[in-house]
Amino acid sequence: MINILLAHSSLGNGGITNVLKELIKEIDKDIFHIDLLMYKGGDKTYQDYFESLGCQIYEVENPKDHYERCKEVIKKLNDEKKYTVLHSCNYLNSGYLMQIAYELNIPIRIVHSHASQDFHNSLKYRLYKKYMQYKINRYTTDFIACSDKAGQFLFGNHPFVVMENAINPMNLNYSQEKRTMIREQYHLSEKDLVIGMVGMITTIKNQVYMLDVLNQLDENYKLLIVGDGQKREEVEEKIQRLGLSSRVMITGWVNNVADYYSAFDVFVMPSLSEGFPLSGLEAQANGLYTIFSNSVTTSLKLSDKVSFLPIQQEDISSWINLIKKETENPYDRKNRVIGTDYDIHENIKKWERLYQSRKS
């Protein structure tokens, strides 16, 4: 049995958690056992889910503040489990985790980059980032990124390998039954043209931009935002200010996200930054026309049903025109992810090979 310790700061809602859910669900459990390491005080929303897959969840102090305490816990676990792999999705703090894994002689030490931009620019932060990149470069054996942008952002000039985020596309097929169910739930008629967004409500996801777009579209265009987050109140205030209360619905967190794609007529992601968003794959698995900002990696383009647009205020008309064009003309809702590198059934083979590539 190959034992793997997979580190992420929390087990709450978010793109990285979704990546880990798919990976752990699909990996060959006759060969691999995965435990999860998270920070004390982190979100445990999906703890029960991961435990149902056989994972044990361990909590440690953030090594940035309590390096020795964190190392002590990992050493105790490693003495018991004899981990072959420490796989970190903890962004800059991965530097500390890689050093600990090196000192404990864990042979495969993976840093997995998901972010393509941050919004900190203080001198203190820049120095900390350089210090962590030094540790990552020194102690890591495998540099993995979900996209070229994410790799370049964290690893700089150091070589890295792109391992695509992946989904189970069979769960996302278009369903007329689900379309009817969701639209009835939110009192949407078939005459309504529904613009869909999925994800955390944050500055980076840029939901406020889509409100400006919606405000210039006809009344039969509605916006359905699936998710929640720290900027929800700000978004709701802008909805009120623009008089869009009857045209915008925010669902909060839901357990059946996959069902919502069938209710959409077009999927949008005007993000300021993205690593490799799974919701962009999910929308294409549902056959939706998908519009991303030009801050999103173009590796998400799996067909001619995908466009990338700039997101300045003067670009709003481009979003309006493309949304009108694609929603007023019917198109097929064919699943465009099955059999690609973004299909978890193909993708998991790459992870299994990496986890078995024991370093000397």
Q: What does this entry look like structurally?
A:
- The chain has about 350 residues and is α/β, with parallel strands linked by helices.
- It folds into 2 domains: about 1-165 and about 340-355, Rossmann fold (3-Layer(aba) Sandwich), CATH 3.40.50; about 170-325, Glycogen Phosphorylase B (Rossmann fold, 3-Layer(aba) Sandwich), CATH 3.40.50.2000.
- It is built from 13 helices and 13 strands.
- The chain has helices at about 15-25, 45-50, 65-80, 95-105, 125-140, 150-155, 175-185, 205-215, 230-240, 255-260, 280-285, 315-325, 345-355; strands at about 1-5, 30-40, 55-60, 85-90, 110-115, 140-145, 160, 195-200, 220-225, 250, 265-270, 290-295, 305-310.
- It has a 7-stranded parallel sheet.
- The longest helix is centred in the middle third of the chain and has 17 residues, at about 125-140.
- It is globular, with a radius of gyration of 21 Å.
- The mean pLDDT is about 95.
- DSSP helical segment count: 13
Radius of gyration: 21 Å
Strand segment count: 13
% residues in beta strands: 15-25%
Report the CATH topology name of the largest domain: Rossmann fold
Structural class: alpha/beta
CATH architecture of the largest domain: 3-Layer(aba) Sandwich
Main β sheet profile: 7 strands, parallel
Q: Report the order of strands and helices.
A: EHEHEHEHEHEHEHEHEHEHEHEEHH
CATH classification, class level of the largest domain: Alpha Beta
Overview in brief:
This protein is an alpha/beta fold. It has helices at 15-26, 47-52, 67-81, 94-103, 123-139, 148-155, 176-185, 207-215, 232-242, 257-261, 278-285, 316-327, 344-355; strands at 2-7, 32-39, 57-60, 85-88, 108-113, 142-145, 161-162, 193-198, 221-226, 248-250, 266-269, 290-293, 306-309. The protein has a seven-stranded parallel β-sheet with strand order 3-2-1-4-5-6-7. A six-stranded parallel β-sheet has the order 10-9-8-11-12-13, with helices on both faces.
